[in-house]
Write a structure and sequence with these properties.
This protein has 275 residues and is an alpha/beta fold. It folds into 2 domains: 12-81, 434 Repressor (Amino-terminal Domain), CATH 1.10.260.40; 89-111 and 154-271, Endonuclease, Chain A (2-Layer Sandwich), CATH 3.30.870.10. It is 51% helix and 12% strand. The chain is elongated and about 65 Å long.
Length: 275
């Protein structure tokens, strides 16, 4: 029997379908047999496996129940349905949830892993007002922020290194209470035993080795990945030839940035209203 070959890197929907087919094959079930267990038809199973139909939340929850996969299919299904995210980002999020070490550099806005719900909601509301996303898509983004933060609470926890450009602190998002709560969240993050937070001040000037946001992941097997975005799409890079220079630049950035103690002091000064 000819079967459509699936490339899980192609899209979140393809990754969902490939996992569904793999687990079904491991148990020796036909599509009709799996459909019986999940309360749908074999044709429905086929359409999801080949990416012709996106998985609904009910379908994803049913797959988790049948295969005993916790909420893994639900999370993958949400990514497959989410059209508000840049192409490539759902794939990155799946890897982020497995990473042993996460290195972030952000410019202009607090990264999702450190956002408070109020800060994330303010950003979401702004995209709706500008017509960039629908209210449902904005809510999906906010839910994803919470899910990503929750994924960091695992054993052992990942090491998380964050360097924020000073603009992240000084760009007002929402009212003063939203910003104060967000700055307080940064201080709390810096106090965790598995984190390092540094600020790259404006006066670094040409000593700044990175000018655009970037993320570098170290996986449990010590392999490396990097993620970066353009205006149109995100790209997850697995080739070490390209990732290693990015990691080197990140280490140089950390060396030039303010220490964590000095960074926390800067944040606290801003909270007090002093420049």
């Amino acid at each position: 029997m000819n079967r459509k070959e699936l490339d899980p890197k192609e899209s979140p929907g393809a990754a969902f379908g490939q996992r569904l087919r793999t687990l079904r094959d491991e148990r020796g079930w036909t599509q009709d047999e799996l459909g019986e267990r999940m309360g749908c038809t074999g044709a429905h199973i086929s359409a999801v496996e080949t990416g012709r139909r996106p998985p609904t939340n009910r379908f994803s929850a049913s797959a988790d129940r049948v295969f005993g996969t916790g909420d893994r299919f639900e999370r993958q299904g949400r990514a497959a349905r989410n059209t508000a995210l840049l192409e490539g980002f759902p794939e990155y999020v799946a890897q982020e949830a497995r990473a042993a070490e996460i290195r972030l550099y952000e410019v202009g806005v607090i990264p999702g892993l450190l956002q408070t719900p109020e800060y994330a909601s303010t950003l979401g509301d702004s995209t709706v007002k500008r017509g960039v996303t629908s209210p449902d898509q904005a809510n999906e983004r906010i839910l994803l922020v919470a899910e990503r933060q929750a994924s960091l609470i695992r054993t052992p926890p990942p090491l998380v290194f964050v360097v924020l450009d000073e603009s992240c602190l000084r760009r007002p998002i929402g009212g003063s209470s939203v910003m104060d709560g967000q700055l307080a969240r940064l201080v709390e993050f810096a106090e965790l035993p598995n984190t390092v937070l540094q600020i790259a001040p404006f006066d670094m000037g040409v000593r700044r080795p990175l000018s655009l946001p970037v993320t570098v992941l170290t996986m449990p097997d010590r392999s490396l990945m990097s993620y970066a975005e353009s205006a149109q799409r995100g790209h997850l890079e697995r080739e070490s030839t390209f990732v290693l220079p990015m990691l080197t630049a990140y280490h140089q950035l950390q060396a030039e940035a303010a220490s964590q103690a000095a960074s926390v002091a800067m944040i606290n000064q801003l909270r007090k209203g002093t420049p």
